[in-house]
Amino acid sequence: MLALRGGIRAGWPLSKMAPTKFPLPANFFRCPMLTPAEKAEYLHTASENAIDLVAHCIMDATGPLQWTLESASTDINIYTSNDPTLPSHVLCYAGVVEVKASVDEVAALFQTHTTDLYKEFRRRFASDLLDGHNLYTLARPTETHPLKAVNIKWTVNEMPGGGLLSNRDCMYEFDQNGRRGWVRAVYSTELRCCPDLQASLGVVRGTFFRSGHVFVESDRPGYLRGTLLFQANMNGGFQKGLIPSWVVKAGVRRRIRGISDIHTFLRESRLSQGPLIGAWDFVDKATRQRCYLCSKKFGPLLRKAWCRKCGEVVCHSCSSKWTLSMSDTPVRACSACALGLVAPHTFAMDAVKSAPAAMVAPHLLRRDGST
């Protein structure tokens, strides 16, 4: 099983006047129509690149790279490696997490085929994106293959040390030894309508050899093993020695650690499913002397709060404010609802009858998603 979603980022400006800032005008790029042969070649290359990334995210001796554990914590392990097939100055880092989620849940976070989805994607995974333009749509999601789409894009990202980078991405669903998985692969490519834009735009062109996200079902039921790999040539000041290597590497490590935020993004996505509860459905705070989840007694140091999803009365330690798609302001929700342990349409009185006070283990109540 192989479903595809992806993009190859590039472009060619026909404007005679270079813009002074981003974003560029919507009509800045004028791309000729691709021939059927060119389209087929891009689809084939995207498929091969995604398979290649999955292989390079294997951390044990069966993979093509030898990975060294650089740091370990409760939420992420960071690895480094040297790829003998690439120039010595190419950075190669990977971050590995374990997340409670399905493949479909994770893949949904990366969808960009509508304006609202693209806005959420940029907030979650592309906060350093200065500008981006979709140049070609090669395949769209369908009911049969909802995760399959291919796009050719041009983007500019702010990189460690103040540089800029043009890049591409492509996404696939796959099976690995009977385990379902999903990959978002990022590779650079040459496109005839996209020469180097440094002279006209001041954009330093970097190169992604292989980078992106890989999620595969783990040995632990209901969990995925997620890997974010970054393998790139930054070019510009880094390669010329104008920017200290430790500055660039520190920025790459921050980017790698970003995969641990997926716990929060998944919970935001779950909480965004279904409506929020109105005040008339809240449990009366006067009837609750203890937190519905941890059973601690309310008092001056343990304040009461309502969950906007189930309506129960919980403490602030067992709830957090979340950024949800249906609300312009942060919404407080309990950890049980964030973990999907309470049905989205379960109102307060139904929850009172069906769930015990200690329904969530204490180690699952932390907002950072560590287990």
Compact overview of the structure:
The protein has 371 residues and is of the alpha+beta class.
Structural overview:
The protein folds into two domains: 36-267, START domain (Alpha-D-Glucose-1,6-Bisphosphate, Chain A, domain 4, 2-Layer Sandwich), CATH 3.30.530.20; 274-339, Zinc/RING finger domain, C3HC4 (zinc finger) (Herpes Virus-1), CATH 3.30.40.10. The protein is an alpha+beta fold. The protein is globular and about 70 Å long. The protein has nine helices and 16 strands. A hairpin with a 4-residue loop joins β2 (68-72) and β3 (77-80). The model is unreliable at 1-20, 161-167 and 343-371 (pLDDT under 50).
> How many domains?
2
Tally of contiguous helical segments: 9
Strand content: 25-35%
Would you identify the CATH H-level superfamily of the largest domain? START domain
- Rough shape? globular
Task: Indicate the radius of gyration in whole angstroms.
Answer: 23 Å
What is the average of the pLDDT values? 78
Largest sheet: 12 strands, mixed
The percentage helix is 10-25%
Structural class, judged by helices and strands?
alpha+beta
CATH architecture level-2 label of the largest domain = 2-Layer Sandwich
SSE inventory with pairings:
Layout lengths: L2 E5 L28 H21 L11 E5 L4 E4 L10 E10 L2 H7 L5 H11 L3 E11 L9 E10 L5 E2 L3 E8 L2 E8 L11 H4 L5 E2 L2 E7 L5 E11 L2 H4 L5 H13 L4 H10 L32 E3 L6 E3 L3 E4 L8 E4 H4 L9 H7 L17
